[in-house]
Design goal:
The chain is mostly helical. It is 70% helix and 0% strand. It has one domain. Helix 2 packs across helix 3.
């Protein structure tokens, strides 16, 4: 397991993030990677959490709404 995976696991365990995102490079690969991430969060923390971290909170950031 590389360092970035361990870091993400620590952030998830401590709920120290508000949304998941990616840069705009290699969009074909990123879509699959993002989908995999959302599914893993749903499996571990439930579908409502996955929706909050992948869609709801991201929309709040884009619309300058408090999270």
């Amino acid at each position: 397991m590389d360092g970035s995976v361990k870091t993400v696991q620590k952030l998830l365990k401590r709920a120290l993030f508000h949304f998941i995102g990616s840069n705009g490079y290699d969009t074909k690969q990123k879509i699959f990677s993002m989908q995999k991430s959302v599914l893993q969060i749903a499996k571990r923390y439930g579908k409502p959490s996955a929706l909050r971290f992948s869609v709801i909170n991201s929309e709040k950031v884009l619309t300058d709404t408090f999270i």
